[in-house]
Design a protein that fits this description.
38% helix, transferase, eight-stranded mixed β-sheet, alpha/beta, WH-like_DNA-bd_sf, 14% strand, transaminase activity, 18 strands, 16 helices, Aspartate Aminotransferase, domain 2, DNA-binding transcription factor activity, DNA-binding
């Protein structure tokens, strides 16, 4: 069918929202009747001179709200619904007229300037979805959803499904040297939720929390919202400064020793030993966030702090968000004996936040051996992307930038000598269709003399996109760079 929206010249809003509103009102008024197949994304984008992303986003909004359905290998179709749901009178169309300068997918910002669509997004937490084992995951998910396994439809174990906790404990012992029993593993829908649970465990004392400076702001905000005072501890080249940590007298410290967030520093074995001695001597707890410990590219991972701990002072956190997919929302923590007892006494009434279906699917995935195969494959893929990012930065910027935190994880930090602020540099990049991420938010108090720094993620980009994106970024930034 042909689509000829009557755009209104005085309208406003993102292009995808305008297109979504047009279709919604046409469907509600039954001018597009149930059962109608909507135009293909490519065809509609060419017809209306809109980007494919704009059309896809509008369609997915209609899909999410139940106006259309997706039929495999066929397209999008308008669904059947009851007449009274629609309402008696169709509302006036609110999709504005699109000037020709906007129809290529750009849109004006608050100052009326055109913003180029994002071509290269260097977000530090993006993963490679192209190599996700879709067929295997679907197979194990279908295996869980058999008629004889009806129990999966009900509430599960509040601490997490035992079959998955068993697999996680065995994997951590083998891969990260973590001493974990099935009973000591607690599952949660993301690291922030696990930190929330820990805040509940410590809420009576509400202790001061020491955190790396800079550090992971996503965890810091949870502590702050629970009313826990934060003491920022400066970093050295190999991680948190132990003398400053001792001086803080903090009874609780959150650290990312295997790949410091955001600088990428790796805490060496000797320093880990001294940190554990401090915790045993003072009775402090260490929250060890091993968020991407699977990925090191030039040496084997250093054993976890928890695996070296003899005094029961380490709370170990891990996640499947980097190693598998963030959308399955499964993270885990391993509690030391004393805290496990408190957890089971005080938080046993909390329902499990992770999908039971995803838990059992992941358990089958791990039990079959596919998990470790996936990790080995992704380590190779990310290793190539890591090298591509490093080579591209060096070729494009040479000695003018300082690269930190390479050889591990899914990102590296780049310090840029420039008189512009990080936000100004990010804005220049955005004008060329490149999204970069300043580390400003990682600081509780950002020092005035700190050069602009950015976290460059490479997990979600192809090798060609990494090279092309960095080359284009160098063209945009070069006029604003100092000598380094």
């Amino acid at each position: 069918m042909d689509i000829h929206p009557h755009w209104m010249r005085d309208g406003a809003g993102p292009l995808y929202q305008q297109l979504y509103q047009y279709f919604r009102e046409e469907i509600q008024s039954r001018r597009i009747p149930p059962g109608t197949r909507l135009p293909a994304v490519r065809a509609l984008s060419q017809s209306l001179l809109l980007s494919k992303t704009t059309v896809e986003t509008a369609y997915h909004q209609l899909l999410a709200e139940g106006y259309i359905e997706s039929r495999e290998r066929s397209g999008f179709y308008v669904v059947e619904w009851e007449e009274e749901i629609v309402g008696a009178e169709p509302r006036a169309r609110s999709v504005p007229f699109l000037p020709s300068t906007q129809r290529a997918g750009t849109k004006p910002d608050a100052h009326g300037e055109q913003i180029v669509p994002i071509r290269y997004d260097f977000h530090q937490a993006r993963v490679d979805a192209r190599h996700f084992p879709y067929d295997l995951w679907r197979r194990y998910s279908n295996q869980c959803m058999q008629l004889e396994n009806r129990e999966i439809l009900y509430y599960g174990d509040p601490q997490g499904e035992p079959v998955l906790r068993e697999q996680i404990a065995a994997y951590l012992q083998k891969a990260r040297g973590v001493h974990a029993s099935t009973d000591a593993v607690v599952l949660g829908a993301g690291t922030q939720l696990l930190i929330h649970l820990l805040c509940c465990l410590f809420r009576l004392d509400r202790p001061v929390v020491a955190m790396e400076e800079p550090g992971y702001n996503g965890v810091r905000v949870v502590f702050q919202q629970h009313g826990f005072p934060i003491i920022p501890i400066p970093l050295e080249e190999d991680g948190i400064r132990l003398d400053a940590l001792e001086e803080s007298e903090a009874p609780l410290v959150y650290i990312t020793p295997s790949h410091q967030e955001p600088t990428g520093a790796v805490m060496p074995y000797a320093k880990r030993t001294r940190l554990l001695q401090w915790a045993a001597r003072t009775g402090a707890y260490i929250i060890e966030d091993d968020y991407d410990g699977e990925f090191r590219y030039q040496s084997k991972p250093i054993p976890s702090l928890q695996g070296m701990d003899q005094a029961g002072r380490v709370i170990y956190l891990g996640t499947f968000s980097k190693s598998l997919l963030p959308s399955i929302r499964i993270s885990y923590m391993v509690l030391p004996p004393e805290l496990l007892r408190v957890y089971q006494e005080q938080l046993s009434e909390y329902d499990q936040s992770c999908s039971r279906i995803h838990q059992e699917t992941l358990a089958l995935f791990m039990k079959s051996g596919q998990w470790e195969r996936h990790i080995r494959r992704m380590r190779t893929i990310y290793g190539r992307k890591h090298q591509a990012m490093l080579s591209s930065l060096q070729a494009a910027f040479g000695q003018r930038v300082r690269i930190k935190g390479q050889n591990a994880g899914l990102s590296m930090t780049v310090e840029v000598p420039s008189a512009l602020t990080p936000e100004e540099l990010a804005s220049r990049a955005l004008s060329a269709g490149i999204r970069v991420y300043p580390t400003t938010k990682k600081w509780l108090t950002s020092p005035a003399e700190q050069p602009p720094a950015f976290q460059f993620g490479f997990g979600g980009l192809s090798l060609a996109e990494i090279e092309e994106g960095i080359r284009l970024l160098a063209q945009v930034w070069t006029p604003y760079l100092g000598s380094g």
